[in-house]
Specification:
332 residues, alpha/beta, eight-stranded mixed sheet, four-stranded antiparallel sheet, 17% strand
Length: 332
């Protein structure tokens, strides 16, 4: 595995540390990104939903984890936390319109929670409607307090700490913190390729799209995921710090709101990195949308990110079956 220090600059680590401190409070602060009617929604514990199609990825239980997986609702959506066993849930298109392309969908939540609907199943279903097989990755998370009041208190404390200047973490420590999630992402790609014939997926046209923390995981998977090798990647309101871009880096799609409280004013080094390496990149900066807009209905142009992403997939030949005359992943 290439060392993280060869891929992320010091500035990237500062951004990722800020991300860890601030976005972990997304479960409390997401009101910045949601419709006014949802502003005062509380976290309400719910029974863990049935997940009959979820497939365990075989990466094992999270080392040292003691608190079991629990779920809650907020903003009319479902969230998971204390995920200790990683799973992958397929959302397959109608075979009559399947393109053969596939996307691993990585929800966000500061590595403390996972937005399983707004940035997970709702995205996957919409992609399947476009003929793209989608697979929601429920990756392992950092442990949080088991009971809801203690969890809410810990999130408030962490979110308030975001105002303090972060100290750049050691590259090795930063990579170690993401090791379980990266292992889960790599296992997801391996599983899809193993069952590609069954799922009617082209093993060379599997990409990844992530939101917030999931976007960070998507970037790490593309840059440091060894055998994962996504054919294309989407970074939806994730960190945009500069990186060292490999010569075979996949096409990159980025969507961000200018009023994003975490990354809207953190610079756009990632775009320059991709352009400097002469790799394909598309960037959509929306005037409004906040952080965490995902698939929520909003009266801002940020809701157009999904249609733009689909058009971009089509431009790269991902909406037509292999061999239909499309360009496929020729730019990759």
């Amino acid at each position: 595995m290439r060392k993280m220090s060869n891929l992320w600059t010091k500035r990237a680590f500062v951004a990722s540390n800020h991300f860890r401190l601030a976005v972990a409070g997304l479960a409390l602060a997401a009101g910045l990104a949601l419709p006014a009617r949802a502003q005062n929604d509380k976290m309400t514990p719910i029974p863990t939903p049935s997940q009959p199609n979820a497939i365990e990825l075989g990466t094992g239980p999270l080392p040292g984890a003691t608190n079991p997986e629990v779920w809650h609702s907020q903003y009319g959506s479902q969230f998971a936390r204390n995920v200790t066993i990683a799973t992958l849930t397929p959302f397959l298109p109608d075979p009559a319109k399947a393109s053969g392309a596939a996307v691993v969908v990585a929800p966000g939540g500061g590595f403390m929670t996972l937005s399983m609907e707004n940035e997970g199943s709702n995205v996957a279903r919409a992609l399947a409607e476009k003929g793209v097989a989608a697979f929601v990755l429920k990756y392992r998370l950092n442990q949080t307090p088991a009971d809801m009041p203690a969890f809410e208190k810990s999130m408030r404390e962490m979110f308030s700490g975001a105002a303090r200047p972060p100290r750049p973490p050691d590259p090795g420590q930063a990579m170690a913190r993401l090791a379980p999630q990266l292992a889960d992402a790599r296992a997801a790609f391996a599983l899809i390729r193993k069952r590609s014939a069954e799922w009617h997926v082209d093993p060379n046209r599997i990409g990844m799209v992530g939101f917030s923390a999931g976007a960070m995981l998507t970037m790490v998977t593309a840059l440091n995921g060894e055998d994962a090798k996504p054919a294309f990647i989407g970074n939806i309101y994730g960190p945009l710090a500069s990186v060292t871009v490999p010569a075979d880096a996949p096409p990159l799609f980025i969507a961000l709101a200018a009023d994003d409280p975490f990354f809207g004013n953190a610079g756009f080094g990632l775009i320059e990195s991709w352009k400097g390496a002469k790799r394909p990149v598309e960037f959509h900066l929306y005037e409004q949308g906040g952080h965490g807009f995902g698939m929520y209905p909003k009266e801002t142009t940020s809701t157009g990110w999904f249609d733009a992403f689909v058009y971009w997939l089509g431009m790269h030949g991902m909406l037509k079956p292999t061999g239909s005359g499309s360009s496929g992943a020729s730019s990759h």
